[in-house]
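Quick one before lunch.
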Amino acid sequence: MNTPARERDLHSYAEPERVRVTHCSLSLSASFEQKSLRGAARLTVERTDASAPLILDTRDLQIESVTCSGQPVEYTLAKRDPILGSALHISLPPGTDSVTIYYATSPEASGLQWLQPEQTAGKKHPFLFSQSQSIHARSWIPLQDSPGIRFTYDARIEAPAGLTALMSAREHKHEGTTHSFVMDLPVPAYLTALAIGELQSAEVGPRTRIYAEPPVLAAAAHEFEDTERLIQTVERLYGAYRWGRYDLLILPPSFPFGGMENPCLTFVTPTVIAGDKSLVSLISHELAHSWSGNLVTNATWRDFWLNEGFTTYLENRIQEEVYGLEQALMEQVLDRRDLEKELLEFPPPDQILHIDLTGRDPDEGCTHIPYIKGALFLRLMEQTFGRSAFDDFLRRYFDHFAFQSVTTAEALAYLRAELFAHFPDKAAAVPVDEWVTHPGLPLSAPHAHSPQLEKIAQGAGPSHNWKTQEWLEFLQTRPCPISLRTMAALDAQWRLTNSGNYEILAEWLGLAIETNYAPAFPKLRAFLHEVGRTRMLRHLYADMMKTPAGQTLAREIYATARSGYHPMAQTVVDKILSTSKPR
Ligand SMILES: [Zn+2]
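Model of the zinc ion complex:
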């Protein structure tokens, strides 16, 4: 059989078919004064083409020298591309299979956020965390930064006394101020992660520790105490957990995402600590990535739906198993509403699962579309072929591609051979091409019905035991326009402006902007100075930008809040404030 050439990753300068990095040995020291990591990366390479240079991805790194066996070697750092950064070409002497790059990161490194003590829960110590996905690892490690290239790593991190350093690794220990780590399973660059801060930990299961700042630890340990049950559930459905430990690190609220599936150590926003476990689906999601994403990885960022669509589907299956069908259905209904909103906002090319990201920053592909449309595609297959046949297929998919990166074409070829071919009559009901290469939501998308949420749509009012999803349904489906009197009455009775649940609060603040409910504005201001979760910022700033008065408020808040946001969140909000026009 003639194997077609594999689609190239447009977001990396690397040429792994000639020289490939197989191991990275890091030695870095963190300076909070200079907002910089400084040290060396020693890379082990596999050379298929003996005459080829090693080509690495970098962004804003200050390269100090490059050596092989202690001798300097020639290198060139190319001109900086605004999206990709600068290619680093290193001439490898004959016979050598390792090279050491001495470097320092820039204070503006796109993959690092250096927090002042006042931006943390404890307020006493600074905090550093990395966020390497999509192509930000290159801003703190010179690497072949493509999800299609896997390597093992070890690291020695020097952190200030009293602070703990953690990485996405299988082993760690520390002596004095030196923290060392080993990741002996091959991972792509976007899964390398580091955090340094005042952290304590609590054991909540045989393979799970929660790391958090001291003021947050008890609440987090309670909220996520079911983690072992979640792991056992996925293992029963899709096979063994292969990474050893599954720990959680709760970050300060400026963390730009809900969570990040860094292997062995999921990074989590504190905004999902609701007190009633109603937002634990985030952990189910990040945990599911230990199969879909970390074990079987999208080969390029075009194939992101393979990571996120599969994971969002798995997430809901875990939720159903552990928290019941009703909880899972409520989450499906709300997810679909989020997707439908985005399908109105994004142009047709952005609505395609196998999105064309030529000339674009892959972070722009991180919309609800790969997640929720992708999950609906999988749910359609589950319904068409039956749950047990589909589960069996998924289990084989994870085994077959374990520790490999796959393209959409490769995944679909496997799907056709290992699932569709076994059920030719049923396969006709799944228009694969429409799902994967067309914009919009196919008519074959399954609908979810939640009896619990339907009661609210039919007029059931709030109750003290409502979960987050019921509140979101209630707030999202209020008939417009909502009067100020109604807003004030709801607030008086349910104290929504003072809600300690960030999801409910963000939804309420959005409604306050829409209705110009001024009593909530001081809280809006405080919220936008505390929380840096990009999805919430995007909604609240975009809502404000719809009216002239809101625009003034948005600019005024952003002027002081911006410096507290992660570089990725800054990019998103900058764009909203520069392009929005009043309706
Ligand atoms: Zn995800």
